[in-house]
Structure formats: structure tokens, C-alpha cells
Design the sequence.
């Protein structure tokens, strides 16, 4: 995956740079997913829906958006694999991340002081905390190198 530098494929500066690039792309895709999530959740809250129900309905579209962008851009080495197998694996692994995200969101709504217990700041906190879980699941389970 890296540039030819004479270094082994298992380590060295090129692999570190490639891994950082993958993570930065994953974060950029996460920002798009975050915007999908927060804008949909806030639109639903504006209609009078409870923040918890609105967030529960906003997460699945955000997951679908991030799967497709990650598959084609962040982890493009895996884009040739079975779409539906990868989608299923992604949904399973990311469901754990989404569960962590939703739990942290609920705790923030119920335990943090104003103004941090409002929907938007709670989503920011929950999404940031779930980033590590989501990246590890994507990188090492769904889109791992050599498993396209």
C-alpha cells in the first residue's frame, strides 16, 4: 500500500504515513457522518420528537453514509471485496460503536450541566468518544489489509 522506499511492508516510516493517512481519511468521513447524524437529529428534534428517539433514527443513515465513503476512500484497498459481506461486517462492528455512542449521548443528556446536556453538545461528546471504537472495528475487522 505504501510508496516504494526499500522498507519492509511490515513497518517503517512509509507504513506509519499510510496508517496516518488512512486515519485522517477515516476522520474526514466521520465528519461527514457526524453532520448527517447531527443535522438529521436536530431536524427531528425541531419537529417535537424527543432527542433520544431523534438520535436513534439519525444514527443508521449516518452509518450507511460512512460505510460507503470509507469503503471507497479511507480503505480503498478493500473496495473490490463483496459489498454486501463488507456492509454486513461493518454494520455488526459499528453497531457496537453506535451503542457506545448512544449510551454516552444518553448519559451526557442526563448527567451533564447546562448547556452541555443539550442535544448538539451531547452528540459531539458521544461521537468523539466512539471514534476509537469505530476506527478499530473498521480497520482491523471490516477493511483489514489483504481481506478485500
Sequence:
Amino acid at each position: 500500500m505504501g510508496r516504494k522506499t526499500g522498507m519492509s511492508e511490515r513497518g517503517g516510516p512509509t507504513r506509519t504515513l499510510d496508517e496516518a493517512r488512512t486515519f485522517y481519511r477515516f476522520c474526514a468521513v466521520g465528519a461527514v457522518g457526524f453532520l448527517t447524524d447531527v443535522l438529521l437529529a436536530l431536524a427531528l428534534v425541531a419537529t417535537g420528537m424527543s432527542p433520544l428517539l431523534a438520535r436513534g433514527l439519525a444514527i443508521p443513515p449516518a452509518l450507511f453514509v460512512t460505510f460507503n465513503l470509507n469503503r471507497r476512500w479511507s480503505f480503498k484497498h478493500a473496495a473490490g471485496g463483496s459489498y454486501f459481506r463488507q456492509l454486513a461486517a461493518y454494520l455488526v462492528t459499528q453497531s457496537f460503536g453506535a451503542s457506545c455512542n448512544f449510551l454516552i449521548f444518553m448519559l451526557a443528556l442526563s448527567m451533564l450541566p447546562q448547556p452541555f446536556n443539550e442535544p448538539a453538545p451531547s452528540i459531539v461528546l458521544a461521537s468523539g468518544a466512539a471514534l476509537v471504537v469505530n476506527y478499530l472495528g473498521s480497520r482491523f475487522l471490516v477493511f483489514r489489509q489483504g481481506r478485500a
In short: The mean pLDDT is 87. DSSP finds four helices and no strands in the chain. The helical segments are 13-46, 51-74, 83-111, 119-142. The two ends are 13 Å apart (CA to CA).
